[in-house]
Automatic annotation (TrEMBL):
GO terms for molecular function: hydrolase activity. Residues 164-278 form the Xaa-Pro dipeptidyl-peptidase-like domain. PANTHER family: CONIDIAL PIGMENT BIOSYNTHESIS PROTEIN AYG1 (AFU_ORTHOLOGUE AFUA_2G17550), DIENELACTONE HYDROLASE DOMAIN-CONTAINING PROTEIN-RELATED. InterPro entries: AB_hydrolase_fold (IPR029058), FrsA_esterase (IPR050261), Xaa-Pro-like_dom (IPR000383). It comes from Dietzia psychralcaliphila. This is Xaa-Pro dipeptidyl-peptidase-like domain-containing protein. Residues 1-10 have a biased composition (Polar residues). Belongs to the AB hydrolase superfamily.
Length: 422
């Protein structure tokens, strides 16, 4: 298999260039980058039935920039309205309309709570999770292809998930979807699952520790050795008659762009891995979140009170830092900012990347700040590897190529089909 580090434009010349002067998909509805990024995340699900243009834009325009209370209230209200419409359609026997409504409601409930990731867990965050889960489960009851709620054995307990296949008997090549920091397994359906099913793949969607139901309902937190999660998933999959055990791959997006290749360093039953927003050593720069004068103290443990005070002061001044630190502390099970920064240092592929044996596709967005060390991961990999840069010129330069779902799916699944021999 050929390897390259070329941009998307070079690899597929029809897509055109991506120079620094190109417009970007920013400032769509908010000047606040955090709000606007989450809004684009909603829009990205339109192609797979997770949202609609008009209702999303009108809702966004009701929200004052930076107002997290209004963010929750407006998206939650939209979710309730769409849910009620779906229930009315179902009561009248209109199953397709109902299914489509339940899927959109799930997106809106989920996004309503996204800025509430912080300890202690806000009851509204718990409710938002439950509402998005319940709306999604209403939708899958109406699917026209096989779709199951499942429980995957995991370290003496189990993790909840969904397993779906295309129509037909199988066995099918199968894709494990690995979500991000603030995603849910329900979101992965519209952020990869639909595209996979359309192309004849079975799909396993599951909240691992730190994510969705595993976090909210089971109080499980992120772990750096993600192979423990993926190995449990593969053990479960290979026992299913619908699964072609020789063709199981993993797609990790956002934080999953670190977790999925990490799993492949030890779980060699994977035949391919896609890392979207690949991150080589995301914890290496944890100290940079501290004021410069305190960065040398992170490892000593001698000034934790001062460090926590400094970080919390920064969080009060920066909504972005406040969101990142609160989300990190909640999902990693840490009580202080310094505990989280130390925990984050465990997340690295340094010294491990050469253990990945299967072909790897790394996908990066030109305008995505999270992929600063993607090239380092590419260079450290010794397995067959490809890296595609998605450009601003094609509307695909944002984090996880948000806003370019069709182009992303085309590139990723064309590569995967080739790698696994379809």
């Amino acid at each position: 298999m050929a390897t390259n580090t070329a941009s998307d434009a070079t690899t597929h010349a029809v897509d055109g260039g991506g120079g620094p002067g190109e417009p970007t998909l920013t400032g769509l509805a908010f000047s606040d980058g955090g709000f606007d990024g989450q809004f684009l995340r909603v829009l990205d699900t339109i192609a797979t039935g997770g949202a609609d243009v008009g209702e999303a834009f009108i809702t966004a325009r009701r929200i004052p920039g930076g107002d997290r209370e209004a963010w929750y209230a407006e998206w939650n209200a939209l979710g309730e309205r769409i849910l009620a419409d779906a229930e009315a359609s179902l009561a009248a026997g209109h199953r397709v309309s109902a299914r489509e409504g339940f899927l959109r409601a799930a997106t809106y409930f989920r996004i309503s709570g996204v800025f509430m990731y912080a300890p202690p867990m806000d009851p509204r965050f718990v409710t938002a999770h439950a509402r998005q889960r319940d709306a999604f489960r209403r939708a899958i009851e109406l699917m026209d292809h096989p779709f199951w709620e499942v429980a995957v054995p995991y370290e003496g307990s189990e993790l909840d998930g969904y397993f779906a296949t295309p129509p037909g008997p199988g066995p099918f090549p199968t894709l494990i979807l690995v979500g991000g920091y603030d995603g849910t397994m329900e979101e992965t359906y519209v952020a990869g699952g639909v595209a996979a099913l359309r192309r004849g793949y079975a799909v396993l969607m599951m909240d691992g520790p730190g994510q969705g139901a595993a976090l909210v309902e089971r109080d499980l937190h992120f772990r750096h050795d993600w192979e423990a999660v993926v190995s449990a998933q593969i053990d479960w999959l290979v026992a299913r008659p619908e699964v072609d055990a020789s063709r199981i791959a993993a797609l990790g997006r956002s934080w999953g762009g670190h977790l999925a290749p990490r799993a492949a360093t030890a779980e060699h039953r994977l035949v391919a891995v896609i890392a979207d927003a690949p991150q080589y050593a995301p914890g290496a720069n944890a100290s940079l979140l501290l004021p410069e004068e305190y960065r040398g103290d992170l490892d000593t443990g001698d000034a934790d009170d001062l460090l926590n005070e400094a970080v919390r002061a920064g969080m009060e001044q920066s909504p972005g830092l406040d969101f990142s630190m609160g989300r990190g502390m909640l999902t990693h099970g840490c009580t202080t900012p310094v505990d989280y920064l130390r925990e984050l240092r465990l997340y690295t592929l340094e010294g491990l990347a050469d253990r990945v044996a299967c072909p790897v596709l790394l996908t990066i967005g030109q305008n995505d700040p999270r992929i600063v060390d993607a090239q380092s991961l590419f260079e450290a990999l010794t397995a067959p590897k490809t890296m595609i840069e998605f450009t601003n010129a094609k509307g695909a330069g944002e984090h996880d190529q948000a806003g370019a779902a069709a182009l992303f799916s085309q590139r990723v699944f064309d590569w995967l089909d080739t790698v696994i021999g379809r």
